[in-house]
Amino acid sequence: MPFGQIIAEARKKLGISQKELAERIKKEDGEPISPQYLNDIERDRRNPPSEHLIAQFAKELKLSKNYLMGAAGTLPDELRQMVNDSDPQDVERAFQ
Predict the structure, then answer these.
(1) What is the Cα–Cα distance from 73 to 58, expressed in whole angstroms?
(2) Is the pTM higher than 0.90?
(3) I need a labelling partner for 49 at 20 to 30 A (CA). Which of 5, 35, 38, 93 fits?
């Protein structure tokens, strides 16, 4: 399922409007995302957001951050660091 669809379905399941969810999700500067930006994410018109925003979506929508990171096609920072610091064979074994 695409990232945006996961967000939209979870939001609707909890009975939260786009406007309400957008107000709860804060950018790095502390400002909330716009409802239009959220709408674009839900319709997969934007690339999945940063890990910072994904973590907030996970919390607000009661979803696993790792699940959302996988749906977004990205690795959490701690796994990305492991990939950068490890032998390729160790990384391959970890993914198996």
Answers:
(1) 15
(2) no
(3) 93
* Per-residue b or e along 43-61, where b marks 16 or more CB atoms closer than 10 Å to that residue's CB: eeeeebbebebbbbbbebb
Rounded to the nearest 10 degrees, the angle between the axes of helix 88-95 and helix 77-85 is 140
CA distance 11 to 21: 8
Exposed, middle or buried, 76 (CB in 10 Å: 0-12/13-18/19+)?
A: middle
Q: How far apart are CA 38 and CA 15, in angstroms?
A: 15
Query: Mind listing the pLDDT tens digit for each residue in 40-89?
Result: 999 999 998 999 999 999 999 999 998 999 899 887 667 766 666 666 77
Q: How far apart are the C-alpha atoms of 59 and 46, rounded to whole Å?
A: 21
